[in-house]
Amino acid sequence: MKFLSLLLIAVLPLFSLAQSEHYLIVGTYTNGKSEGIYVFKFDSKTGTAKEWSHVVSSNPSYLAISPNKKIVLAVNENADTLANSYGGEISSFSFNSKLGTLTPINKVSSGGEHPCYVTMDASGKWAIIGNYSSGTISINYLDGKGTLFPPNQILKHQGSGPNKARQEAAHVHSTVFSKDFRYVFTPDLGTDTINAYRFDKSLGKLFATGKNATASSPGGGPRHFEFHPNSKYAYLMEELTGTVQAFQYTATNGSLKSIQSIVAIDPKDAETNFSADIHVSPNGKFLYCTNRGVSNTITTFKIDPATGKLSFVDRIDTQGIYPRNFTIDPSGQFILVANQKTDEIIVFKIDTVTGKLKETGTKIPVYNPVCLKWL
Fold this sequence. Notes:
By secondary structure, the protein is mostly beta strands. The chain has one helix and 28 strands.
């Protein structure tokens, strides 16, 4: 009995260390030295990471993880110059959690040009893909082994916006499920709208709702969209104005009601800004968003729990150029920011009381990082 107790004491620290480690999956652009998707092991105790493996893939700029953590989907953000051919693709990979490796399964059409976003439903059977250049949404089926099938449905947005350089046509920029997976919301940078669809999981199809399109600000350029953990509120990042739009969300009918508009950037940077990603902290107290341009920053807002409205807390440099996606680690202690043009991920420590971010000095080198996901 004494020997068993000593053995448990000896093993316990090792188990604790393993519990603090998480696989970080990094999507990249492969128009430089990157070869595809990279797997890192991140330690939430130290805030450090080490490269573990990688798999070859063409421009896997956005990733989705299956509910069972066994499948990774990656958009291949490409297009085809051939007439009547979209060219964008979606790839499926199996993940070996023991080895920390990805193995290709198959690749099919994304139903559009330059797919930039993918998400999966709660069953892991359906992938919803946003194709930027063609303004289309594709719904693709996955079987039990993670094999992808050609599009089950393709929907196309129509319209344009006042910014003639960026809003000449519809540009679907994300496809986001509501927390209960009943609705899918598709911010469109080209039309200044958030389109809402009812999701039929038995058919694998989207249907327009009575509140189909919610307008953002003219010329705002809707990009990424995030629900609050309590599902009462939702937040939109406008790429072209650097503005966050806050909404009250009604889960019974999938409707959005505007409650606030607040600028995330320094006004002097408005002409050169391209805001990118947006996330709410797991505790629901803070919202963060990244801004690219002459000033490369991440902004912190505090969320009023009673109203869902935002108040400015802080804005700091991301210590790199062109911050794209960012992620909060599973422990809720760190934010990792992908600086695309300086080939590194920067790790910041979160003050869980104030929401402010502090530099840790940790830099994770990886070529052209643009998407960060956890396994």
